[in-house]
Amino acid sequence: MLCCSRPLFMIAVAAFLAAPAYLLPASAFAQAKPAAGLETAIFAGGCFWCMEPPYDDLPGVVSTTSGYIGGHTKNPSYQQVSSGSTGHTEAVQVVFDPTKVSYQKLLEVFWRNIDPTTPNAQFCDHGSQYRSGIFYLNEEQHRLAVASREHVERTKPFRAPIVTEITRASTFYPAEDYHQDYYRKNPLRYKLYRTGCGRDNRLEQLWGKSAKGGG
Fold first, then answer.
1. Is the separation of the CB atoms in 149 and 163 below 8 Å?
2. Mean pLDDT of all residues in 185-196
3. Hey, which residues does 142 pair with through a beta bridge?
4. Which residues have C-beta within 8 Å of that of residue 201, sequence separation ≥ 6?
5. Is the CB of residue 90 less than 8 Å from the CB of residue 44?
6. Dihedral sign for Cα atoms in the order 180, 112, 195, 127
């Protein structure tokens, strides 16, 4: 099973990228609450495999979890979400220490790792399950997210408008275990997917040298 939406070049390597045959519902994997003093942020930027590394590399981030948010189906599986029928988008939940890294910094990392100009798509992946978004958990996050998007709109080095949504967070469902830390568990398969999807080339095209490729 691929993280992406299977364009032709990826179909050719589908057998190599095949995930385990068993698929447990996302609810089978516990979603731990952050410890005292820690905070949570949720971002959607296309394939969640690719959104974990930039945050894992950021000092002050305690953990990242791939999952699904923004849909109408309870306890969705990857198969359901990837079909585009549940309304969810792939996302990453970031637990961080606000004394070491700010939510504003997380937002900066987010923008430099997505294409904010494409509705219902990120790079080679197409469908509402790959839409980009910031899912805020409180009014302070909402305020900072809106201010951040306005700043990007004013200063972006490209002409296309920003279409990334800012939405109040609904239930976040952790993805199946084999999706977690995929870039660490399967580095060669991950790099093949990331390169084939054209993610880093597009990020550099949009953001120049400030683009932050991950993994």
1. no
2. 97
3. none
4. none
5. yes
6. positive
State how far the Cα of 204 lies from the Cα of 112, in Å rounded to an integer: 9
**pTM value surpassing 0.85:** yes
Look at residue 133 and give its three-state secondary structure: strand
Tens digit of each residue's pLDDT (9 = 90 or more) over 12-46? 343 344 444 334 444 434 455 778 899 999 999 99
In the prediction, which pLDDT does 4 show? 56
What does the block give as tokens for 34?
Answer: 């952050």
The two structure tokens encoding residue 15? 């057998």
Residue 81 structure tokens: 């979400």
Please check whether residue 62 is in contact with residue 40, taking contact to mean a CB–CB distance below 8 angstroms: no
Token pair recorded at residue 122: 């990120």
Reply yes or no on whether 47 is catalytic: yes
Residue whose structure tokens are 């637990």: 95
**For residue 61, pLDDT beyond 60:** yes
Name the active-site residue from 47, 50, 124, 197.
47
Q: Mean pLDDT across the stretch 103-132?
A: 98
Distance from C-alpha of 56 to C-alpha of 50, rounded to nearest angstrom: 11
Q: Which two tokens stand for residue 42?
A: 């949720």
Please name the amino acid found at residue 49.
W
